[in-house]
C-alpha cells in the first residue's frame, strides 16, 4: 500500500533556527534561516516561489521543499536562487529556460562547486571555489559578460540556448584572472579580482552606474577604475544607480539622481563618479541594499 509522506510544517522545520538572510524583489520575499530552510511569500504566478504550478500567491510564509540545507539565497525579477551546502544551485522561475517556466526547484549548474550567487532582474551570477564567474539569463544589456551585442538578442542567429545555461564570462586568458566576490545589478554585474581591489563590470551603464565613462552597454568584462579605488564590503546596484559600502563603513553613491535615490540631497546632480554620502559620514554603516 502506498503512503503519502506528510509535508513538514513551518513550525517543525524552523524549530531552533534564526533568520539568517532575506532578499526581495518587487513582488515577493524569500527568507533563509540558520537552520538552512527557505520560507517564501508573495507572488508566484510564474513559479518564482518554487511551490509548484498551483500556487499563484502566498500571503503567509510557506516552506519550500528542497531536501538540502541552504546557505545562500537571492531573488531576481521573476526567479529565486538557492545555494546548498554542497555548492549546488536550485531555483524556481528564471523567466526563460530551455523547457519554459520552472515552477519547482531544479538544479541549474552541475559539476561546479559554487560558493556565492547573485541575481539581477533577469540574470544570475555564480562564483566558483576556483574563482571563476559563471552567468546565465538575459544578455540584452550585456549583463552576462560573455556575448557580443549582436549575440545578446533573443533573435540572434545562434539562438538563446547558450544564454540559458550557466557558462564562464569572457576574459582574456593572458590576464589570468580569478575572482573572490560578485554582485549583481538590475541589469549589470560586478566582479572583484581575488587578492586585489580591482573590480570588473559589465552590463547597463547609461548613468555611469558601473563606474565607466562610456554610457553605452558594456558587453564584455571591463575594469572599472572608479570602483577599483576602494575596498568594498558591499555593492548594491539598481537599474540606474549604485550604492556601495567600503570596509571602513562609509557609503558611496553613483548614477541617476531622481527620487533622491543617491542620498546626496535634493539639489544634487547625476553622479558620474562615486560620491560619499555625507549625511552618513560620521556613522559606521554595516549594510546597504
From TrEMBL:
The stretches annotated as RCC repeats are 36-86, 81-130, 131-198, 197-248, 249-289
Q: Which residues form the signal peptide?
A: none
In alphabetical order, the GO MF annotations are: guanyl-nucleotide exchange factor activity
User: What's any one GO cellular component for it?
Assistant: cytoplasm
Report any Pfam family annotated for this entry. Answer: RCC1_2
Supply the PANTHER family for this chain: REGULATOR OF CHROMOSOME CONDENSATION
Identify this protein by name: Regulator of chromosome condensation
Amino acid at each position: 500500500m502506498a503512503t503519502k509522506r506528510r509535508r513538514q510544517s513551518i513550525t517543525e522545520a524552523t524549530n531552533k533556527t534564526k533568520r539568517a538572510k532575506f532578499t526581495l524583489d518587487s513582488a515577493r520575499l524569500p527568507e533563509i534561516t540558520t537552520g538552512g530552510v527557505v520560507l517564501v511569500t508573495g507572488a508566484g504566478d510564474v513559479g518564482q516561489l518554487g511551490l509548484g504550478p498551483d500556487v499563484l500567491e502566498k500571503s503567509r510564509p510557506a516552506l519550500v521543499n528542497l531536501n538540502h540545507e541552504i546557505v545562500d539565497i537571492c531573488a531576481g525579477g521573476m526567479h529565486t536562487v538557492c545555494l546548498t551546502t554542497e555548492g549546488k544551485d536550485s531555483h524556481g522561475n528564471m523567466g526563460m529556460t530551455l523547457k519554459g517556466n520552472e515552477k519547482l526547484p531544479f538544479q541549474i549548474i552541475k559539476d561546479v562547486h559554487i560558493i556565492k550567487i547573485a541575481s539581477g532582474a533577469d540574470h544570475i551570477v555564480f562564483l566558483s571555489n576556483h574563482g571563476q564567474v559563471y552567468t546565465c539569463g538575459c544578455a540584452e544589456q550585456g549583463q552576462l559578460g560573455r556575448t557580443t551585442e549582436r549575440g545578446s538578442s533573443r533573435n540572434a542567429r545562434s539562438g538563446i540556448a547558450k544564454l540559458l545555461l550557466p557558462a564562464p564570462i569572457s576574459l582574456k586568458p593572458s590576464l589570468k584572472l580569478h575572482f573572490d566576490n560578485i554582485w549583481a545589478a538590475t541589469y549589470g554585474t560586478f566582479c572583484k579580482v581575488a587578492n586585489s581591489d580591482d573590480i570588473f563590470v559589465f552590463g547597463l551603464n547609461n548613468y555611469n552606474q558601473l563606474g565607466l565613462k562610456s554610457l553605452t552597454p558594456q558587453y564584455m568584462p571591463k575594469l572599472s577604475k572608479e570602483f577599483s579605488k576602494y575596498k568594498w564590503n558591499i555593492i548594491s546596484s539598481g537599474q540606474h544607480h549604485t550604492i556601495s559600502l567600503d570596509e571602513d563603513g562609509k557609503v558611496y553613491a553613483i548614477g541617476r539622481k531622481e527620487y533622491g535615490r543617491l542620498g546626496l540631497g535634493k539639489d544634487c546632480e547625476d553622479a558620474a563618479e562615486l560620491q560619499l554620502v555625507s549625511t552618513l559620514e560620521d556613522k559606521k554603516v554595516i549594510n546597504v541594499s
